[in-house]
């Protein structure tokens, strides 16, 4: 088909594709503007087309992707060390760290806050989001013993694994390269674990916890706190733990705070999984031999299906069939889509015509819709 007017929604010549035995209903493609009919050609199913062109096109796409990807990766590898060194050098020279010795400033520069954590702190101080958890402690409850237990266990864990709980003793300081974690020299457990108001019942507890959700954590000390809330009606004491998201992920951080009050669990014995390892190895070995043979057979020994219908001499009032279209596939589509066979054939015909219009040079073919057994 050739194009005269790209805005034309339909073909300029009615095309009759199917006709019922009584001759009353036909499938037509109506047109009234823009496009003139071209020389008709036989519709070719994608499965019947040659694979040489698509194979060469795929090779060109892969080659272009590898070339662009390798160039971009090499440029990133060359630029990233320079940018990282400049950022850390700016942090070392920041005026916020001048009171610390050079060795301490270098350690701070190497531990700058990650961008995904700094995005929660840059807009206007440590605000939302804040993770909260409730711990219910039975009576009697001693705030002094509670503080001593938390501080002792956190310091033991920080000495054994600084990366896991070290940020609980650090505060956020702005530097030239962004934000950095600095040890709080004035750290005091009394500033983080304190007592709260006495609540009458669980309803007041819920309102108090909800009101704390919108309150930010102080920025001049580590971003966590614990508030002890006595509950006279049950005799228990509820401890509200609050921690900022920049410290760690919520599950891991609350687990550290909660486990600081629990006994050390027994070490679990991890068994090495062995099920399916031999089968996976055999499948990989078999794929190494089967894949080249299958690919060679597909490229060289593939046989095109023969069409049951001869070449069409007159393209009107004739039966058109596709050799790769099977009745079983049509029935499967019919059962899944709840459509009739005729509607499925109409959809196939619309897709074939859209493909032919694209081949003929029409970049955006008109949409062919099924309406009262007609394609319009």
From TrEMBL:
GO terms for biological process: triglyceride biosynthetic process. Keywords: Acyltransferase, Membrane, Transferase, Transmembrane, Transmembrane helix. The keyword Iron-sulfur does not apply. Pathway: Lipid metabolism; Glycerolipid metabolism; triacylglycerol biosynthesis. It comes from the Eukaryota. It is an enzyme of class 2 (transferase). Residues 153-274 form the O-acyltransferase WSD1-like N-terminal domain. It holds the Pfam family WS_DGAT_cat. The chain crosses the membrane at residues 55-80. GO terms for molecular function: diacylglycerol O-acyltransferase activity. It catalyses: an acyl-CoA + a 1,2-diacyl-sn-glycerol = a triacyl-sn-glycerol + CoA. One of its GO terms (cellular component) is plasma membrane. Its EC number is 2.3.1.20. PANTHER family: O-ACYLTRANSFERASE (WSD1-LIKE) FAMILY PROTEIN, WAX ESTER SYNTHASE_DIACYLGLYCEROL ACYLTRANSFERASE 4-RELATED. This is diacylglycerol O-acyltransferase. It comes from Amphibalanus amphitrite (Striped barnacle).
């Amino acid at each position: 088909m050739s194009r005269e007017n790209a805005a034309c929604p339909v073909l300029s010549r009615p095309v009759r594709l199917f006709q019922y035995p009584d001759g009353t209903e036909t499938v037509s493609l109506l047109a009234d503007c823009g496009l003139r009919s071209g020389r008709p050609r036989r519709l070719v199913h994608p499965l019947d087309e040659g694979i040489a062109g698509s194979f060469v096109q795929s090779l060109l796409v892969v080659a272009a992707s590898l070339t662009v990807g390798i160039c971009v990766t090499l440029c990133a590898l060359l630029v990233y060390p320079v940018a990282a060194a400049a950022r850390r050098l700016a942090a070392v020279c920041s005026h916020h760290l001048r009171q610390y010795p050079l060795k301490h400033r270098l350690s701070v520069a190497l531990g700058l806050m990650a961008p995904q954590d700094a995005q929660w702190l840059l807009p206007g101080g440590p605000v939302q989001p804040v993770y909260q958890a409730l711990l219910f402690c039975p009576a009697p409850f001693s705030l002094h013993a509670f503080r001593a237990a938390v501080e002792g266990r956190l310091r033991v864990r920080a000495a054994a694994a600084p990366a896991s709980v070290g940020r609980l003793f650090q505060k956020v300081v702005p530097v030239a390269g962004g934000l950095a974690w600095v040890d709080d020299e004035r750290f005091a457990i009394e500033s983080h674990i304190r007592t709260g108001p006495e609540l009458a019942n669980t309803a007041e507890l819920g309102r108090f916890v909800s009101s704390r959700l919108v309150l930010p954590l102080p920025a001049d000390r580590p971003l966590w706190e614990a508030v002890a809330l006595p509950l006279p009606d049950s005799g228990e004491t509820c401890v509200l733990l609050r921690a900022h998201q920049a410290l760690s992920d919520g599950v891991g951080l609350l687990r550290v705070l909660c486990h600081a009050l629990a006994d050390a669990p027994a070490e679990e014995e991890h068994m090495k999984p062995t099920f399916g390892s031999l089968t996976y190895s055999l499948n990989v070995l078999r794929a190494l031999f089967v894949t080249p043979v299958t690919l060679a057979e597909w490229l060289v020994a593939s046989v095109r299906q023969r069409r049951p219908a001869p070449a069409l001499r007159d393209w009107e009032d004739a039966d058109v069939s596709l050799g790769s279209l099977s009745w079983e596939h049509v029935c499967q589509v019919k059962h899944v889509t709840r459509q009739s066979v005729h509607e499925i054939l109409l959809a196939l015909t619309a897709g074939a015509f859209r493909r032919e219009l694209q081949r003929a040079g029409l970049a955006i073919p008109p949409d062919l819709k099924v309406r009262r057994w007609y394609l319009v």
